[in-house]
Specification:
This protein has 736 residues and is an alpha+beta fold. It is built from 24 helices and 22 strands. The protein is elongated, with a radius of gyration of 35 Å. 51% of the residues are buried. Residues 68-255 form the Glycosyl transferase family domain.
């Protein structure tokens, strides 16, 4: 026989030892390329080897708090199904065309392998496969487990060493699993084309059905696709579909030849059209019902070490892990937010309204809504970033929150011992007495005696903590911030989670209290939720549980800390509740339950806000033009089909918030605010209005405009206003 023939016979013997039925075959004289095989055979021990089988990449499903599906994330769209969840005709078709002796031979189909070997030796290379289904499964596992291009190339290279290695692993697989189990594993890992991995995803993608319900023509089509899924990808065009149709008919002929179906059945199936539907596979935030919340969840997982030690492991876990992610989103509250936003702002309007709802005491984000649909193709009436959140969660630079920031100066005054009826004399304009009047937290003097802050129509006179807040008097809050300290006000805001939407440091200028730092609805809603929770700040929370494909779950709990003295929070809620009855929201009205809040309008009407809370739910609404709020003001604009000469916090954001809360809290029993500690905050201390002080020129019930229209713009006290679109990134490049 010769030495090389002996080596080949030894290979046959190894196959027989593994339970392989060896068929007689004439082994040709070999030379040239055969030497490579012999060398490899001498080096590789053909004994069963244990194959490490990392689970194939599988779809991650994101669900809302009620169990409804929000989105799917995946690198390879795959849904693993059991053997019994695959139609019998699908199993028959794939065995017929790929390995018709699959249930008769062991790990190695010696007849097929030796036939392929003979052909390859004659051709001087590897031109014919001869792989069994078990070997094909092994190759798929090795390829999917590869983490580098070099490993992926090694898994597919045309070499005898690689083939022998596959045989060793295949022998181990045959010892480890039944034939049915191996077939199910192969059908779940194979790629069928059109971005469908595994038979279940392929059944859905190609035909809009399940693997269990595949018909004969459909099963033959999928069985034919695995040989060269790129060449027969029906999603690529007519030529590929024609090739797939021909390949389907080859499978049908082979099934008839083997007696698995009759000639008539084959003819009938071949007469059927291809039937490719191209069903859109679910997944990604662009196709989600709740795209902004979806973006928030995705970015939270990718950036939070709680979900993995590195960005790479977090991404792999999200896209390949087959996880079920349970979130905080409440579909009823989400619907309430969406409907209220749509009632006042249309998708075609230039300004965009955005709203976030947050649960006090947990930080759970219950809703995220905007007036425009999210989209990455810059289509009309779409926006390509998360307008509800900060840049760390797929957002842009946000909008200046205006007078909603006055709340933190109020809180600072209460922390320092001022009582509710304590007050200050507010002039028609405010100018810092000297450069040293205001100091930032670095101890630097940043006062600007050359800049005057004014009130729109002027309201000089004595203002208490209550009335100054209700009427949102700019000069009062500048005087108050001077008294309590700029740095102290900044620290209060930071303690409640306030930060810039772009991730940069807060700008610590004297007009901090007037809302010069761009922020986002999630951040502001969370800060106000802490007041509602009697000073307990809880970081924004979107994920409550992650369940792995093995069924094991990890729960995530709120991250909370006591940021304010509860009595200070109670007193703040007391003051802010008057905004609905005696202040800037008087014309809009309340909820019929305890509620508190603050309107916000920035200098020259660049943006408008409302932030408010009940003991059960907090929310913040922003309105601004994403093309650049400093360039495109909210003046002389038509929004929601209505013309506005100027838009303030109570014009649109306030009504959106009110309508949202009325709907979102329907059926939720009202909870009352904790009464103010009168001994601590009632009345006034040394700064009650002097008896000879002229009475306040403006009644408490009169809502005054919140922003100056004369004097230097607020933003000029800090940094030049951005004239570029309020976007810092396009998440479409990284999210889909």
């Amino acid at each position: 026989m010769g030495r090389r023939g002996t080596k080949i016979a030894r290979l046959a013997a190894a196959g027989a030892a593994a339970g392989v039925l060896v068929a007689a075959i004439v082994i040709p004289a070999v030379g040239g390329a055969g030497a490579g095989f012999v060398a490899a055979a001498e080096e590789v021990n053909l004994a069963p080897a244990d194959l490490t089988e990392p689970p194939p990449a599988e779809v991650t499903i994101v669900r809302d708090a009620k169990g409804g599906e929000i989105a799917r994330f995946y690198e390879e769209y795959r849904e693993v199904v059991g053997f019994d969840e695959i139609s019998p005709v699908m199993k028959t078709a794939i065995v017929a065309i790929e390995d018709f002796r699959f249930y008769q031979h062991g790990a190695i189909d010696i007849e097929g392998t030796l036939r392929a070997l003979a052909t390859n030796l004659r051709s001087g290379g590897v031109s014919q496969g001869g792989s069994s289904i078990t070997q094909q499964y092994v190759k798929q596992v090795l390829f999917n487990a590869a983490t580098t291009d070099e490993d992926r190339h090694a898994a597919l290279e045309a070499s005898y060493a690689r083939k022998l290695n596959e045989l060793r692993y295949a022998m181990g697989i045959e010892e480890k699993y039944t034939k049915d189990e191996i077939l199910a594993k192969y059908l779940n890992i194979a790629y069928f084309g059109a971005s469908a991995y595994g038979v279940e995803a392929a059944a859905k993608r190609f035909f809009g059905t399940h693997a269990a319900d595949l018909t004969l023509p459909q099963a033959a089509t999928l069985a034919g696709a695995v040989q060269d899924p790129n060449a027969t990808d029906p999603n690529l065009g007519r030529a590929q579909r024609d090739r797939l149709l021909k390949r389907r008919n080859v499978v049908l002929d082979r099934m008839a030849e083997l007696g698995e179906i009759t000639a008539d059945q084959a003819a009938e199936a071949k007469a059927a059209k291809l039937g490719y539907k191209g069903t859109r596979l679910p997944g990604g935030c662009e196709s989600s019902k709740y795209p902004y919340f979806c973006l928030y969840v995705r970015q939270e997982i990718l950036s939070n070490p709680d979900f993995g030690p590195t960005a790479e492991t977090r991404l792999a876990r999200l896209n390949r892990g087959g996880l079920t992610i349970t979130t905080t989103l409440d579909p009823g509250m989400q619907a309430a937010a969406e409907q209220a936003v749509a009632r006042y702002v249309h998708p075609s309007d230039a300004p965009v309204a955005a709203q976030a709802l947050v649960q006090p005491g947990t930080g759970a984000i219950r809703a995220m809504a905007a007036s425009r649909r999210y989209g990455t193709k810059a289509a009309r009436n779409e926006i390509s970033y998360n307008v509800v959140a900060d840049a760390a969660h797929g957002g842009g630079i946000g909008f200046q929150p205006g007078s909603t920031m006055k709340t933190f100066t109020l809180i600072t005054a209460l922390k320092q011992g001022m009582k509710l009826d304590d007050g200050l004399a507010a002039g028609a304009g405010y100018r810092a007495p000297s450069y040293a009047t205001f100091k930032n937290c670095a101890g630097q003097s940043i006062g600007d005696p050359g800049h005057t802050v004014t009130n729109d129509e002027g309201s000089p006179g004595w203002k208490t903590l209550r009335s100054g807040t209700w009427n949102s008097v700019n000069t009062f809050f500048m005087e108050l911030e001077e008294r309590v300290g700029l740095c102290e006000t900044v620290r209060t805001a930071k303690s409640l989670g306030v930060r810039r939407a772009d991730g940069k440091k807060l700008q610590e200028y004297e007009t901090f209290t007037l809302g010069i730092n761009e922020s986002d609805p999630v951040t502001i809603a969370t800060a106000y939720a802490a007041i509602a929770a009697r000073g307990e700040y809880c970081a924004p929370m979107a994920v409550t549980r992650i369940t792995g494909r093995d069924g094991e779950s990890t729960r995530y709990r709120p991250r909370c800390r006591q940021a304010l003295d509860p009595a200070v929070a109670d007193a703040t809620a007391e003051v802010l509740s008057g905004v609905f009855t005696k202040g800037t929201m008087r014309g809009v009205g309340g909820l019929g339950r305890d509620a508190a809040g603050k309107t916000g309008t920035t200098d020259d009407y660049a943006s408008a806000w409302f932030a408010g809370f009940t003991p059960d739910l907090a929310g913040a609404v922003s309105l601004g033009d994403p093309r650049g709020s400093q360039r495109y003001k909210l003046t002389g604009v038509t929004i929601g089909g209505r013309y506005y000469g100027s838009v303030q916090g109570a014009s649109i954001p306030g009504p959106i918030w009110r309508d949202t809360m009325l709907s979102a809290l329907r059926g939720v029993p009202p909870t009352a605010f904790t009464p103010v500690d009168q001994a601590r905050f009632g009345g006034c201390a040394e700064s009650c209005r002097p008896e000879k002080q002229d009475p306040e020129p403006t009644p408490l019930g009169t809502a005054e405009p919140e922003t100056p229209t004369t004097g230097a713009p607020v933003t000029e006290t800090t940094a030049p206003a951005a004239e570029t679109p309020d976007v810092t990134l396009d998440p479409g490049d990284i999210l889909n």
